[in-house]
Amino acid sequence: MPRDLIAALDIGGTKIAGALVDGGGKLVARARRATPAQEAGEIVMREVTAVLEELSGSAQWSRVAAVGIGSAGPVDAGVGTVSPVNIPGWRDFPLVAGVRETVGDLPLALVGDGVAMTAAEHWQGAARGRTGALCMVVSTGVGGGLVLDGRLHPGPTGNAGHIGHISVDLDGDPCPCGARGCVERIASGPNIARRALEGGWRPGPDGDTSAAAVAASARAGDPVARASFERAAQALAAGIAATATLVEIEVAVIGGGVAGAGDVLFTPLRRALRDYATLSFVEGLEVVPAQMGTDAGLVGAAAAALPLL
Ligand SMILES: [Zn+2]
């Protein structure tokens, strides 16, 4: 029996997804549970174990050569612990030790979810074949990861590229992380919606005040809705330009729900990038939408474990 599969876990505040992933990035078995995010740490871990047991009960489990875990962060890959902001029962929680109780001593990689998404885009998606890339998830929060010298760059703790908490507004609003004027404080979906509401935008008859609803208004020409997306685009552009200037990326890949706004986000983003990415070596920087879709977390967790094979 060839050992050619990776067992992948994608752990977030809503769901715990698992899959067996082959060398081409195809998912050959799946399992999934809801995350009991408000419960004690051990109860959350029980659901992770249930997902792993479902996978290890499948006929293909004997082909598994390594395990890849992508988790909401922060994570600490060095010691194998996680402290996801939206799973309060997990603070410095020994996730790797818990997973090892089911998978034994298979080679194992742990990365943050932004790094996992980056690994997926670099392996199979919009950053494929690129030497330097910043991949971002713009959603409820803003996360990201880096490809440098043609390889995933998770950093020592598995969190490198966390662009959401770079400050782009020195005296800006306080961010839950403790800093001020972070990219996430301006560009996340909830903050786009909040700023639109503060500016006088009102939802339609359905009462939907999500960033997607603001995007629909922006597309229809509403000036306040447009301004909120333009401000978010500006914050993203400043963060991307800073990253490109520091480490010479050639492409920024943007995924997550807010990226679903399409041109409402990407047009002002590309325009703002010309204002901030001004030096000759970053002028050619491209901004493109992510390609990996809903399985990016699982494919990325598997991709993060590829170097272990
Ligand atoms: Zn912050």
Tell me what the structure shows.
The structure is a single chain. By secondary structure, the protein is α/β, with parallel strands linked by helices. Helices cover 36% and strands 20% of the residues. The strands form 3 sheets. Strands 3-2-1-4-7 form a 5-stranded mixed sheet, sandwiched between helices. A 5-stranded mixed sheet has the order 10-9-8-11-12, sandwiched between helices. A two-stranded antiparallel sheet has the order 5-6. Helix 3 packs across helix 9. The protein is globular. The model has no long low-confidence stretch (mean pLDDT 96). The protein binds zinc ion (ZN). The site of zinc ion has 6 residues, from loops. One of its GO terms (molecular function) is kinase activity. Belongs to the ROK (NagC/XylR) family.
Describe the secondary structure blueprint for this structure:
Layout: E1 5-11, E2 15-21, E3 27-34, H1 41-56, E4 64-71, E5 75-76, E6 81-82, H2 95-103, E7 108-112, H3 113-124, E8 133-138, E9 142-148, E10 151-152, H4 183-187, H5 189-198, H6 211-219, H7 223-247, E11 251-255, H8 263-276, E12 286-289, H9 296-305
Parallel strand pairs: 1-4, 4-7, 8-11, 11-12
Antiparallel strand pairs: 1-2, 2-3, 5-6, 8-9, 9-10
